[in-house]
Design brief:
This protein is of the alpha+beta class. Helices cover 61% and strands 14% of the residues. The protein has 2 domains: 2-100, N-terminal domain of the delta subunit of the F1F0-ATP synthase (Peroxidase, domain 1), CATH 1.10.520; 105-176. It contains 8 helices and 4 strands, in the order ααααααβαβββα. 18% of the residues are buried.
Length: 180
């Protein structure tokens, strides 16, 4: 819990500074790229290692982010020096939520068993836009296990219209049913 609070605080500080410098979109995109690189390479374990001197970590971080904005590079060094680089993925999530909220955008995570075609995506997006009264960005995921239907997570709401859920509910009802 404390980790999430700290991540949000750091994200808020970066958000405010990036917005003030009119580089919010750039910093958000760069932050996304840095997190992806750190997760797909050995960079994060290297930066977290207590055996490696801070100066060496800073040199490697400088080299890895040399094309990023000065603001993001300063921010990453601050996280490194304060031992918070581990929270970078959570910071990215928080800053994206802040940016989306400012723009009046809501992200909807949609899980289906099979890919949605363009017409289905548009219909779902239109209906969610109507319900939420906000612009909607769909984040599509595939999970064949749900068999059919969809699971939609948007904000604090979860709409589970999957066949998997219906089968679970039926199984539970059958277990509770009394047989004479």
């Amino acid at each position: 819990m404390q980790t999430l609070v700290l991540a949000r605080r750091y994200a808020h500080a970066l958000f405010l500074q990036a917005r003030q410098e009119s580089v919010l979109e750039q910093v958000t995109a760069e932050l996304h790229a840095v997190v992806e690189v750190m997760q797909s390479t050995g960079l994060l374990p290297f930066l977290l290692s207590p055996r490696i001197p801070l100066e060496a970590k800073e040199r490697v971080l400088d080299h890895a982010t040399h094309e990023a904005s000065a603001l993001l590079r300063r921010f990453l060094k601050l996280l490194l020096r304060r031992g918070r680089i581990r929270q970078l993925a959570e910071i990215r999530k928080a800053i994206v939520r802040m940016r989306d909220e400012t723009l009046g955008v809501e992200r909807a995570s949609v899980t289906t068993a099979v890919p949605l075609n363009a017409a289905q995506r548009e219909k779902l997006q239109t209906e969610l836009r109507r319900l939420m009264k906000k612009e909607i960005i769909l984040e599509l995921r595939l999970r064949p296990k749900i068999l059919s239907g969809a699971i939609v997570e948007i904000g604090d709401y979860l709409i589970d219209g999957s066949v998997e859920k219906e089968i679970r509910n039926l199984r539970d009802r059958l277990r509770r049913a009394k047989v004479n």
